[in-house]
Please model this.
Amino acid sequence: MTPTRVSPLGLSEQELRDALGEELELAFRAEGNAATIHAIAHSVARVIVLDHLRMAEQLEKAGVTLDSPD
Model:
């Protein structure tokens, strides 16, 4: 069996770090330059959404059809 090239699914580690850093900066500024639990939670949730969007895009390109949530 010939090995196949496997592409990573979702954002790369570097993309995740970059996105989280950017989201944290924005959220901290919105909270008056404070590292609040709310700002951190918002940033992590936003990066997870971005990762899921990337995964959905990659799966669609691979021919996988996803049902849309109702």
